[in-house]
Amino acid sequence: MTYTSDQAIAGLTLDPLGPAFGAEVVGLDLATATDAELAAVRAALVDRKVLFFRGQGLDDDGQVALGRRLGELTVSHPVVGGVDEAHPEIYAIDSADNGFADVWHTDVTFMPRPPMGSILRAVNLPASGGDTNWADSQLAYDSLSEPVRDLVDRLTAMHDGTREFGYYLAQRRGGKGNVWEGETVTRLDPVEHPVIRVHPETGRKGIFVNPGFTSHIVGVSDAESRAILDLLYAHLTKPEHIIRHRWRAGDVAMWDNRSTAHYANRDYGSTHRVMHRITLRGDVPAGPARGR
């Protein structure tokens, strides 16, 4: 379904950022939203994949309360602790502590059960720069040629968080991370996911590999793996598959982790940038049915 600008959908007013991807939700106060309004937000999130809310007054408590109304919260991260003892669910992305996110990635795909979605709040912004970009993995899949879709539908890939978080786990956490899906994380073993993920609510297919955490394609040569991944990364991040958000104080963004990848621009020099993120518990990624 495609919406026109400022069209009211199920009680929400959406200002789309593209024909079928991304939208600003106009005039909704997340702190006082009704259950019906948040149910509409949840439905719009699946449909539009990324939603933005301007002028919100949320603090850490309010962000956590909002997340609990939208789904089941995870801890902040499998390895990185919460922002403080009172908010173990909040992951602080702080440029003063190497928090940049300047590589295309989908959140926490290096775990067997990655989060369903993320809610990000601007806490401290540079005067300019630090925009975030999202790519629509379903639109990218749909625009692949049929022979390439036929190939990648059959593939699986390994996702490994060691490069990004292995040192943190070993040196800053003493080898003991957080409790994720009922188990304390003590090491980051690579996990296998389908290259193409079928969305559990819509049945749509999307590209589910990312440069941040995908190490290689399973069952092919190193050269073939690099070529396939390079093709998919280049295609996923074509300009027509991307929206870009310029942050303002009070902004909140939500995205569906099952159908997007994102990248935060690191173009603000030594200026301090802090964002607070929470994540909603997801499911184990499923690939296309293999009928042959």
From TrEMBL:
Superkingdom assignment: Bacteria
Keyword Nucleus: no
Keywords assigned by UniProt, alphabetized: Dioxygenase, Iron, Metal-binding, Oxidoreductase
Chain ranges of the TauD/TfdA-like domain: 15-279
Pfam families listed in its UniProt record: TauD (PF02668)
Family from the record: Belongs to the TfdA dioxygenase family.
GO molecular function: dioxygenase activity
Matches recorded under PANTHER family: ALPHA-KETOGLUTARATE-DEPENDENT SULFONATE DIOXYGENASE (PTHR30468:SF1)
The organism of origin for this protein: Sphaerisporangium corydalis
TM region(s), chain numbering: none
Protein name listed in UniProt: TauD/TfdA dioxygenase family protein
